[in-house]
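Write out the 3D structure for:
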Amino acid sequence: MHFNTDKQTLDDLNIFGKPGRDSIYTIFNNTHTRGGAGMLEQMFLYPLSDATAINNRSHTIQFFSSAGTSFPFNSALFDSAELYLQMEDERTRLPREPGTIGGKIRHLIGEDHQYKIISNGVSAMIEILHLLKDFVQSISKTASQTPYAQVLQELEKLLNDDDLAPVMQEKSKGRLSYHLTARYDDLLRFRSRNTLRRILFHIYHIDVYISVAKVARVHNFVFPEAMDRELHTVYLEDVYHPQVKNAVGNTLSITPDNNIIFLTGANMAGKSTFMKSLGIAMFLAHIGFPVAAKKMSFSVRDGIYTTINLSDNLSTGSSHFYAEVLRIKKVAQELGVSKNLFIIFDELFRGTNVKDACEATIAITEAFAARKNCMFVVSTHIIEAGEVLKERCRNIFFTYLPTTMRDNVPVYTYKLAPGITADRHGMIIINNEGILDIINNRPPKTARS
């Protein structure tokens, strides 16, 4: 089964971000090869939805992290190897007979562009194969009890392929003669192309694993443990936003008995950042990657959908409220096919009047409560809705982000507390900024930077 999400969610969580700007992807995008970068992107585009596959990838990266392994290849080798393997036309095959006119010409005219690509490619592939053999031998023993042991067995089998025996025995590290180049070219590019592609596939995975492992060490990220989807639980200890400097961590547990998190708090108290932190952690966990937290375990979900930065659609004439309605309809359709989802809604129905928003928030959240196989995080400023839901639903956990006042200035703790808050500090902030004084052309009462 595929893991489901959409562009709205990816944008909300800044998974890929806009060109030239930092994103969650850029945190991990430290691969050494183009093939590794492509592999990393595919992992982000297609998260996993199987607990075993997630844990196998996670435990593999943990192995490379604990070992402090460095990428053992020169990245330039792969540029030459890829360019070389892209030459599939039989007409580019080098003549094997040294006595042919073609062979002599190519031997004498060493500057021929096509021959250079082939010669460099052959040398690069031979060096890659030898380096890989040394690498596999160096980690085989310590990796024997990890999920990566199975991959190492496949790599050993590929490297011991009879067709590759001549190049594995090649000792020369300098420029090969035309005769050897032609011989190895036939062996590598035409007889063993599929084997080499498979080997490169595994090397690019190694590149990703080592790069992500380094990110985990540098940022002190934790590796989540995936659990059976039927448990419908998530535990996060001190989860925080990986792009927020000096971020405050929060601990949260979700179970079928409290599968809805009802979040309140004043503006600027940190609700959106907290919800993004949850979404990012859940997304990365399904890739099998480390997350910004002290500890995490989670039941595998079939998908994640968020609505945090939803905008109106001017091209279709849709208002913000109607865009919200369509978004909820899309989520409802996903829920209707019995998927186990993780869903985040930041301020339901902010695009309509308070009365309609209150009634709609109660109705939608109450409907969500009936889906105990799914997990929901819903934030709102409408505390009246929370009071009604307290009476109607027993599986909602009410929590808020507190605000304290210091010299008439709001101070935010960014730490969750149980319950519902009526904190509203909008007018205090407006008055502190002297906006009304500016409009009325009066001297400000207090000066603020």
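The chain has a mean pLDDT of 90.
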